[in-house]
Structure formats: C-alpha cells, structure tokens
Write a structure and sequence with these properties.
Blueprint: H1 2-7, E1 28-36, H2 46-66, E2 70-76, E3 81-87, H3 91-100, E4 103-104, E5 107-108, E6 110-117
Antiparallel strand pairs: 1-3, 1-6, 2-3, 4-5
Helix pairs in contact: 2-3
Length: 133
C-alpha cells in the first residue's frame, strides 16, 4: 500500500492550447517608393508628388480610396524617392494604386515600392545599398 500511495498522485491537467493569430499590430505601415520618369522632364514638387499619390488612389479605388490617409514623410526631388506612411488597413490599397499608375502629366511613369515595414526604423538603412570600404 505504501508504494501505491506514492504512485497514485493526481495527474496534471492536460495542456490546453489556444491558437492566436495576430495581424500586424502596428497602426501604420511605411513604404519607401521611387517614381520613375523615363523621359526626364520636370520633376514633381512634394505637393505634386502627394497629389499624384492621391490621384492614383482615386483612379483605382474611387473617392473612398482618395480619402485614405497617406502622409509623405520624406521626399527627395533629386531622386524622386519618398517614404510614405499609411494606416495598416490601407497598405494593400495604396500599394496596388501606386503599382497600377502609368502616367504623370501625360508622360509614362511607374512607381517602384522599394521597401515596406510596420517600423519606420527599418527603412532607415537598406543592406542592398550598403557600400563596403
């Protein structure tokens, strides 16, 4: 009986697993983009660049798309590069609108999405552009 008493301990309860799937918890997403104008010509100012982004959204997604809050955080007129901030739920709408835009002032153009991240700091450096001495 002494041996039975030691072996008859209560079994621990079976582990209960709960599956949790988290979509991006970040409020915003950031995109590093570049506008390509193959024929050169006048380069858009920051205001014209922002208007181009809004018109791309309007063209693909209508007035609802144009109302999507998008901020131009940085813009380099020399390279036509920018960092855009959009609410995470609007990332796909913005990306698709930029990708499908084909003209700026009746000239061919193309947006290239170079990087995207829910963290602004992740866009501060790009290992593909790293120059080693």
């Amino acid at each position: 009986r002494g041996l039975e008493g030691r072996m008859a301990r209560a079994e621990p309860p079976a582990a209960i697993f709960e599956r949790r799937v988290l979509r991006s918890a970040a409020e915003h997403h950031y995109l590093r983009v570049r506008l390509e104008l193959p024929d050169g010509g006048a380069r858009p100012s920051v205001a014209q660049f922002k208007q181009l982004v809004v018109s791309a959204l309007r063209e693909l997604h209508g007035e609802v798309g144009a109302a999507l809050p998008v901020d131009v955080l940085t813009y380099e007129e020399k390279t036509l590069s920018a960092i855009l901030r959009v609410i995470s739920s609007g990332l796909v709408k913005l990306w698709s609108a930029l990708t499908l835009l084909g003209f700026y002032q009746n000239r061919r153009c193309a947006f290239r999405v170079l990087q995207t991240s829910p963290f602004l700091l992740a866009l501060s450096g790009n290992s593909r552009e790293l120059v080693l001495d």
